Fold this sequence. Notes:
This protein is an alpha/beta fold. Helix content is about 25%, strand content about 20%.
Amino acid sequence: MSExxxxxxxxxxxxEAAVYLRVVGCGNPxxxxxxxxxxxxxxxxxxxxxxxxxxxMPQASVEMLDLLQGAGVVLFVDAVSSxxxxxxxxxxxxxxxxxxxxxxxxLSGHGWGLAEMLGLAGALGRPTPRLMLLGxxxxxxxxxxxxxxxxxxAIQIVVEKFPQLRVFLTGAGQGEGHDFxxxxxxxxxxxxxxxxxxxxxxxx
Length: 204
């Protein structure tokens, strides 16, 4: 397995060892909508988003444990498949009983995933930052296929609204509450409100 691609980092004052928010794009770059997490991180990097650390993780591996070090919040951006319309954006704490990321929720070829990472961190006594999932509902994930228009639209909204999301996750309230929030395709109120109460974790 390859190590997460640490291609863009934001550091504070000299000697500061870590950033507060770490964003990790996950997925398969060659499988249509499954590449959404990687694409979000790449577009944020292209926009010069420097207030957080941006990483790419095409495949789950034991190096995931390194992601827990030095961050107050780790945001995984990944494709999800829950039956909602393609392009729906989900924002949820991890681990979640409501929805799980495609790349991290299922075991990799070496038997490694999110549950294994958290289990090992606990066994080693390592502190765990707050983990969040920004999931985009997929349409097509066939090899070599292009991303669907609905998912492209979701990527655009997420990238445009990322400064608000960053403040929401790292501000005084730090995304207070552990609610699962769902934003239908084209909903530009992301990331704050859909107009309805957030969906409680464990609900539908």
